[in-house]
Amino acid sequence: MPRPDYAPGQSWTYRTRPGEDDSRVAIRRVDHEPEDGDVFHVSILGVKLRNHRVPGGLQPAMHHAAVSRATLDASLLEPAGAADADESWRDGYAVWRQAYDNGDAGVFDIGIGDVLGYIERVVAASGEVR
């Protein structure tokens, strides 16, 4: 099977977490980094991301994540048309870009569902509101 040509503007189905079957990955940007190769900047939409910092405790999207091709290859299933034109990912990208350039951020190389679980654990460790 040939490797998919992942490109900005695409939306994909992926191996979702239980209860998030309608979730999609939107590819926003691709950067080539000398140390990490192709880095795909994605939004993960239609999720139920536990986050004590948002009203209701559930965040419906992760607007930016930097992931490897291996993450996409392991997670994405089928093209799902064009991604939305939402620009919310740009703020997260700017924060990541600065941290990455300073050596303080990296690129996920785990499945998309595992990325979401990791983010939930980090947010929870930052202090639940009680």
Q: Biggest β-sheet: count, sense, barrel? A: 5 strands, antiparallel
Number of helices: 3
Task: Output the structural class.
Answer: alpha+beta
Low-confidence segments, ≥5 residues, pLDDT <50?
Answer: none
Termini Cα gap: 50 Å
Order of helices and strands: EEEEHEHH
Provide the domain count.
Answer: 1
The total count of strands amounts to 5
Q: In which order are the strands of the major sheet placed?
A: 4-3-2-1-5
Radius of gyration: 14 Å
What sort of overall outline do the alpha carbons produce when their principal axes are compared? globular
Give the mean pLDDT. Answer: 94
Task: Give me the secondary-structure topology.
Blueprint: E1 10-14, E2 24-33, E3 37-50, E4 58-68, H1 69-75, E5 76-82, H2 89-101, H3 112-125
Antiparallel strand pairs: 1-2, 1-5, 2-3, 3-4
Protein name: ASCH domain-containing protein
Organism: Luteibacter sahnii
Structure description:
- Helix content is 26%, strand content 36%.
- By secondary structure, it is of the alpha+beta class.
- It has one domain (10-125).
- A five-stranded antiparallel β-sheet has the order 4-3-2-1-5.
- Strand 3 and strand 4 form a beta hairpin.
- The chain starts with 9 loop residues before the first strand and ends in a 5-residue tail after the last helix.
- This is ASCH domain-containing protein.
